[in-house]
Amino acid sequence: MNLKTLTLNVYLQHQCSRNPFEKFNPKITSHKTNIRNLRCRRNQSIITNCSLSSHGADNAAQISPIEREKEVEAVVAVEEKTQLLEETLENSRGELLENQSLWDQIIEIVKFSGPAVGLWICGPLMSLIDTAVVGQGSSIELAALGPGTVLCDYTSYLFMFLSIATSNLVATSLARQDKNEVQHQISNLLFVGLACGVLMLLFTKFCGRWALTAFAGAKNADIITAANTYVQIRGLVWPVWLVGWVAQSASLGMKDSLGPLKALAAASAINGVGDIVLCRFLGFGIAGAAWATMVSQAVAAFMMIVALNKKGYNGFAISIPSFDEFLQIFMIAAPAFVAILSKTVFYTVLVYFATSMGTKTVAAHQVMAQLYCICAVWGEPLSQTAQAFMPGLMYGANRNLVKVQELLKSLVIIGGLSGLILGFFGTSLPWIFPYLFSSDSEVIREMHKVLIPFFIALVSAPPINCLEGTLMAGRELKFLSISTAGIACLCTLVLLVLSRSGYSLIGCWFGLVAFQLVSLYCTVLYHNCS
Question: 384-393 pLDDT, tens per residue?
């Protein structure tokens, strides 16, 4: 049989082994060429994919080396053309969003970022459910949720560097079409997440009461005791929660935003039912709320690991990274960690000043702070959208700064509209339905005092997320970290002055407004200058 009369449908047969982690990537074919070229490590012979008789096989074996080399060159040439066509089509798919009209861009952004809200909203939503249920029973336990949720939720934001590093490293490895490297990066980051979770578990166990005393002050012994009960129970889930966080970020790096939404729905349902049963019917109070939240977070983490396994990766495989790999993770996450740390410290100082104002004021601040968190995080997926779509326009082969501006305009429009919607919705809850959170009239009165700064802070949050996401996409992390740290220090001084001037809780919330507005002004100014 003459090999030249056969189609170019080539297989390498002898002792070829496939990588079990290699994803099948079919080549683009036509009626003229249908190529599948697999390189064999031990045997360079080429045979056709049709059944060869022994005579045909003998003839094939008698082909001269020169003819065989020509056949190999022909196969490689066609394969190179196919790969080039695939790359062109992939670039065209990547340019889909930026080539659309403004309205189409907005629709695509909403489709991409909408389900990703589950990543950011799960923790604050669980704390808000705890606040609503516990607030119906005891004002002291409601006040205890303030420092308790700070130690559980706000400190978890310090580990957002895990999310940033995971999404970045996974997306980079996927771009190289190296599934082994993707698995290795996930395994390394799972270990980092587990190690951080164990450290936080130990910190909560041995230093939890000390940290709560620093927040609430030694004079509030009843608040500290209730808050410590809450913190010790929720602290049990730290290792599982951070491992699930890595798995969740890996899914987002693979452009899967439905996984977080499913995890949010399941966790929120479990938390809500658990709170009602344990707190209202069984009378466990703040301890019951903590158990319900802990179990729901564990379920959400398990769901994310299972979702990762369904994509062909092992979410239970953990490996210890080398020093160079640790350094790589640190170099990616360090500037973002500084910015996150600055925000966390400022929010912690805000709670510290509010905690020193009495039980009723602390209870009112707890309700408003949880509402703010649950509403403000809806803007975070816009930041992630900017990081996903802008780098190709800034640094890719099709670099187009005009399209960057158009995409930024779409994000800012969505951010502005989201801010207004969240502002009106978030403000209406404590204004019209305050008894959802507390039956104490004095607590409700304190809540109503801060509605105006609460509204302003909410409206400004999503646009800030959009602009900060653009800075991350443009690798302007040095400016982001320095500016955030400087603004946090400045606004901490403002809080100190306002609290000592007798402005009580409203002074704390106007300090938060100052932080938000100065951050917005600095990011807008930097974008205009650059």
Answer: 777 767 765 6
Q: Cβ distance 433 to 423 under 8 Å? A: no
In single-letter form, the type of residue at position 122 comes to C
CA dist 524 to 23, 521, 530, Å? 43, 5, 10
The average pLDDT across 250-273 equals 79
Length of the chain: 530
Three state DSSP letters for 409-424: HHHHHHHHHHHHHHHH
Residue 16 tokens, joined: 């070829």
Ranges 159-173, 177-191, 320-334, 423-437: which has the least confidence: 159-173
What angle is formed at CA 199 by the lines to CA 117 and CA 352, rounded to 5 degrees?
Answer: 65
**CB under 8 Å to 319, separation ≥6 — which residues?**
184, 187, 188, 190, 191
Residue with tokens 């009112």: 364
How far is it, in rounded angstroms, from Cα 325 to Cα 321? 6
Q: Positive or negative, the Cα torsion across 433, 435, 438, 440?
A: positive
Whole-structure pTM value: 0.65
pLDDT digits (tens, 9 = 90+) for 105-134: 667 777 767 776 766 766 667 777 777 888
Contact 301, 247 (CB under 8 A): yes
Give yes or no for a contact between 149 and 215, defined as CB atoms under 8 angstroms apart: no
Alpha-carbon dihedral sign for residues 324, 325, 328, 333: negative
pLDDT tens-digit readout, 506-521:
888 998 999 999 999 9
DSSP structure class, residue 154: I
* Residue position matching structure tokens 């339905």: 433
Average pLDDT over residues 127-144: 80
263-281 b/e (C-beta count within 10 Å ≥ 16 → b): bbebbbebbbebbeebbee
Q: What angle do CA 103, 109, 113 make, to 5 degrees?
A: 155
Phi-psi region for residue 100, left (φ > 0), alpha (ψ -120 to 50) or beta? beta
Mark out the alpha helices in 235-316 (DSSP H runs): 238-253, 258-275, 286-310
Strand (E) positions, 115-195? Answer: none
What's the CA gap between 330 and 449, in Å, rounded?
43
Residue position matching structure tokens 């938060």 = 512
DSSP conformational letter for 159: G
Query: 48 pairs with which residues across the strands?
Result: 10
Instruction: Measure the CA–CA gap between 317 and 83, rounded to whole angstroms.
Output: 32
Three-state DSSP class for residue 311: coil
pLDDT in tens, 34-83: 433 433 333 443 333 434 444 444 444 455 556 566 565 665 555 555 55
CA proximity to 146, closest of 445, 350, 444: 350
- Residue given tokens 């990066």 in the structure block: 185
Name 175's bridge partners. Answer: none
CA 215 to chain centre: 28
CA angle at 165 for the pair 164 and 169, rounded to the nearest 5°: 120
Q: Exposed (0-12), middle (13-18) or buried (19+): which is 210, by Cβ within 10 Å?
A: exposed
| Amino acid symbol at 46 | I
